[in-house]
Amino acid sequence: MKASNAQWKGQLGSQIPNQLGAELDVFEHEIALKQQGKIEDRVFAETRLRRGAYGQRYDNGQRADGKATRTLNYPSTNTKGPGTLWDAPGMQRIKIPFGGLNASRLEMLADLCEEYSDGIAHVTTRQDFQLHYIHIEDTPTIMRRLASVGITTREACGNSVRNVTACPIAGVCREQSFDVTPYARAIAYFMLGHPDAQAFGRKFKIAFSGCKENACGLVRLHDFGAIAVTRKTGGETRRGFELWVGGGLGPVPQQAKLYDEFVPEEEILPVAQAIGRVFAQLGEKKNRNTARLKFLVSKLGIVEFKRLVQAEREILQHDPRWTAYLKDIPTSAELPLKSPALLQIEPVFPHGFERWRATNVYTQLQPGYATVTIALPLGDITASQLRLVADLSRRYVRETIRSTVEQNLVLRWVSEADLPALFTDLERGHLASPVAGTVVDVASCPGTDTCKLGIASSRGLAGELRVRLAEKGAELDESIRGLRIKISGCFNSCGQHHVADLGFYGVSRNKNGYTVPHFQVVLGGEWTNNAGAYGLAIGAVPSKRIPETVDRITGRYVAERAPSETFQAFIKRIGKTECKKMIEEFTAVPRHDEDPSFYSDWGDPREFTLGDIGVGECAGEVIAPIDFELVACEREVFEAQLKLESGDIPQAAAMAYESMLHGALALLRVKHLPVESGADNIVEGFRKHFFDTELFFDPFVRGKFAQDLFKAHENAGQPRTLETTHQLIEEAQLFIEACFSCYARISAAPVMAPA
Question: DSSP strand E in 115-197: where?
Fold first, then answer.
């Protein structure tokens, strides 16, 4: 029988810091009050989110081949009624600052996912762990047990400083300026629960990178991104950070702005605190859609933002924690378990070793040592595999384990001579897939498996692509082996599709009376240079034809690339028009009676349907005018991209804005609403009939995309930069997607003419 919360509390009390124990007691009391109906849903939601407890989607079925999907039918024992958190299990997010793990932490995660979840732990793109199908009543015990091995879930969600990420090879990287681990650890615990970080309008993300060129830290897509740099002053080498602020992905991504080329190491914590104060004071609070730091930086401009931060820094009361950790850095470095030893040339290496070594082994800065990546399919790892990795971390290294933003694990400080034996041990646990850092290692958000915002099955598609690409094996051309594929189930970019070589995000289309899962194809992103560039969507393709789309795009790159030409350079050279032509063949959706597979998603046989609509005995389908009009709007957005590509910023902005106007007009027409010509009349008619009535509102982002139209209308004709035009095109694309969704919702009901 599973121990009760009270039993675990008594057993673990001495192992948990007093303050944390008291906070968990309060959380447990709040759960009890929620069960008694004495706390409002919205109040309790903020409480549980700040403890990392999410609600989750709970409606997936089984694969068509009868095998279970990642979503298992895990029954709820809760008895509260629908409309509350109690009608189904949820998800528990677990913070792992800079991905730092050890054997006891892995073993605790194994126990918890086995006892409270479905036996699978999930590594996220922020180096966190997530456990799904968790009952809210069990979360205090889960949190106490995690706390006993030094792990917290505090502020893993909510309007807070999220998990601080850092290079998983920091300290052993051959290109680094210095090891950023101590700084990432220091800022993570300094900002945790800090009074100046409790009044944010939205989340706040921090990342550290040891160098500029590689992508390990992805600094430029963060609210606060720090790149290690050194500077010589008076013959002395000083450590510091090139600091970037105001980055973020989401529906409309924005690259961070350079705050300072050199922030001395002793200033990195107080500057972070000062930025937190400015964000808390001036950041948006009412409209969550514009509440991230990136919007404040854009609104103020980087010069004014920096002035305000410096003013806050000057009035901060000194905190000894700002620099206390610095004195320990020289003695805090990781130590190996074994002496360095080079890999010996064996008569016969284990079968598959050389291929695995080529992809999963990184030669460290320190001679004789290597870092080994354990590639996890879609970030998933079972309880037994967690225990195996824990055992191996004791056998081969001094428990030096980290999670990565690519949803994998790494073992650091492996003596090179031990690599064959380690490979054999990993292979026994099905953990030796030779795909780390390759095109096969597809990254994905949870999508429709468990996320309430998911539109299409990102995990299902990612799994299918992994299988197909892995089957090609040696047939894969060397030029595409290192490409990154990243998939999000919706426009929010949790799968980081904007910075992938090949990015995809889930959308839907109303075809032949059914809602058909699609993915927008995103090209032009750059993973290297700390997320150096963001891609743009070039068109929507039915989910079932994405594998063919990947083959077409990569095949053309292999056939036509110039010597040493990167994928990004190739895409830029051939241009958006040619890219669009490559996918046009795959955009058509056959009738349901011709191929019903198009009307269900990967891994889920159920149909995305609005109900069967009778088809007459005629030669073709009757197409509503709005179908043509919205497709024309998509074309306008794409043409805006072409103008941007050619450097015609004014025309690109104008076309993006006009596509939004035409989308609004199409919706007004489908409701037979009279509207006079002219942009002002279209916008006001849309505001009256779709925004004020909330008919256009999405269940999750509400009226965000409508507000983008209003903002574009207000700023029409104003001078724009390359960056702001790029953002306007993103907003226009999402507004048209919202028009498609709105039309799908209203098309199921009879269209009534206005009185």
Answer: 120-123, 129-134, 165-166
Place of tokens 């099955």: 457
- For residues 561 and 478, the answer to whether their CB atoms sit within 8 Å is no
pLDDT in tens, 163-216: 999 999 999 999 999 999 999 999 999 999 999 998 898 999 999 999 988 777
Which residue matches tokens 């046009």? 584
Instruction: For tokens 């047990």, name the residue.
Output: 145
Burial (CB count within 10 angstroms: exposed 0-12, middle 13-18, buried 19+), residue 246: buried
Q: Which tokens in the block code for residue 347?
A: 């008569």
CA distance 335 to 330: 12
DSSP string, 82-130: TTSGGGS-EEEEE--GGGEE-HHHHHHHHHHHHHTSSSEEEE-TTS-EE
Q: Letter for the amino acid at 329?
A: I
Q: Minimal CA–CA distance to 77: which of 124, 116, 126?
A: 116
Model confidence at 467, pLDDT cuts 50, 70, 90, reads very high
Residue 22 has pLDDT above 90, yes or no: no
Q: How far is Cα 30 from Cα 693, in angstroms, rounded to an integer?
A: 36
* DSSP classification of residue 485: E
The 3-state secondary structure of 210-274, one letter per residue: CCCCCCCCCHHHCCEEEEEEEEEECCEEEEEEEEEECCECCCCCECCEEEEEEEEHHHHHHHHHH
- The helix (H) or strand (E) run that includes residue 506 is strand 502-511
Model confidence pTM above 0.70: yes
Least confident stretch, 82-96, 257-271, 606-620: 606-620
DSSP 8-state class, residue 68: B
Phi, psi dihedral angles at 166 (to 5 degrees): -160, 165
In the chain the domains, ranked by start, together with CATH numbers, are 5-147 (3.30.70), 172-331 (3.30.413.10), 353-428 (3.30.70.3340), 438-615 (3.30.413.10), 623-755 (1.20.120.330)
Tens-place pLDDT, residues 124-168: 999 999 999 999 889 999 999 999 999 999 999 888 999 999 999
CA atoms within a 13 Å half-sphere pointing along the CA-CB vector of 438:
29
- How far from the centroid of its chain's Cα atoms is residue 401's Cα? 22
Burial class, 189, CB count within 10 angstroms (exposed 0-12 / middle 13-18 / buried 19+): middle
Which pairing describes strands 224-233 and 485-488: parallel, antiparallel, or unpaired? Answer: unpaired
DSSP class of residue 687? I
Q: Are 236 and 159 in contact (CB under 8 A)?
A: no
Q: If we measure between CA atoms, which residue out of 645, 646, 650 comes closest to residue 718? A: 650
In sign, the C-alpha dihedral spanning 173, 177, 179, 180 is negative
B/e letters for 253-290, b = 16+ CB within 10 Å, e = fewer, are bbbbbebbeebebebbbbbbbbbbbbbbeebbeeeebb
Q: Which residues, in sequence order, are CB contacts of 525 under 8 Å at separation 6+?
A: 497, 498, 499, 500, 501, 503, 533, 534, 535, 568
Q: SS3 for 123-138, per residue? A: ECCCCCEEEEEECHHH
Contact 202, 251 (CB under 8 A): no
Query: Which one is predicted more confidently, 676 or 725?
Result: 725
d(CA 315, CA 310): 9
Kindly tell me if the per-residue pLDDT of 589 is higher than 60. yes
Cα end-to-end span (Å), the chain: 65
- At residue 59, the pLDDT reads 53
Residues 6 or more apart whose CB falls under 8 angstroms from that of 475 comprise none
Helices (H) and strands (E) in the chain, counts: 23, 22
Whether 383 contacts 111, CB under 8 Å: yes
What are 604-630's pLDDT values in tens digits? 777 754 333 233 323 333 446 677 688
